[in-house]
Design goal:
Blueprint lengths: L4 H7 E4 L3 E4 L16 E4 L7 E7 L2 E4 H10 L5 E4 L12 E4 L1 H6 L14 E4 L4 E8 L2 E8 L2 H16 L7
Antiparallel strand pairs: 1-2, 3-4, 4-5, 6-7, 8-9, 9-10
Length: 169
């Protein structure tokens, strides 16, 4: 569900620290006017991920999406928090992204054994295997004797394919 920029601007003002400030009275509580809105909402699909949210007409809305609409007027497929801090909703920390691009700016998985993104140990070859995931496809970059060489090749490929969404760690 989405709401218009006009409605968002009627309900809230944007503050440069990434908060929305209530402009209207809600449920007879006049003290809410001029105060930041939002509560922490845990993402049920991804444990550990939290977002600031608020309710409008009984519907939950993530604050970062409302801030984007307040500034740009559109509802992109996804929004990416550039610094990966999902509670930092400053407009300069948000960018429109496809699901694929948003995944490029994620942390290295905890179960990663090499310590580098795009590098894993290949048991049968007994070498380090480098790859890059881009455009919903895995591109194989080859097998390497040293972990450092595989990591360098993977990082260079990720710079090429991931561009501004590149996350080295």
């Amino acid at each position: 569900m989405s709401i218009s920029q006009e409605i968002v601007k009627t309900l809230f003002d944007y503050r440069e620290d990434g908060f929305l400030i209530r402009k209207t009275k809600v449920g007879g509580r006049s003290g809410d006017i001029g105060r930041p809105v939002g509560f922490v909402l845990k993402d049920a699909k991804r444990p550990g991920k939290m977002y600031m949210a608020t309710k409008i007409s009984g519907q939950h809305f993530c604050i970062h999406r409302l801030i984007w609409v307040w500034h740009h007027g559109d509802w992109p497929e996804q929004l990416d928090h550039i610094d990966r801090n999902t509670l930092n909703n400053k407009i300069e920390n948000l960018r429109s992204a496809s699901a694929s691009k948003n995944m490029m700016n994620r942390k290295t998985f905890k179960n990663n054994k090499s310590g580098y993104r795009g590098v894993s140990w290949h048991k049968t070859q007994k070498k380090w295997f480098a790859y890059v995931d881009a455009d919903k496809k895995r591109k194989n970059l080859g097998y390497f004797d040293s972990l450092e060489e595989a990591a360098n090749v993977a990082n260079e490929a990720r710079k090429t394919f991931h561009g501004q969404f590149l996350a080295l760690r």
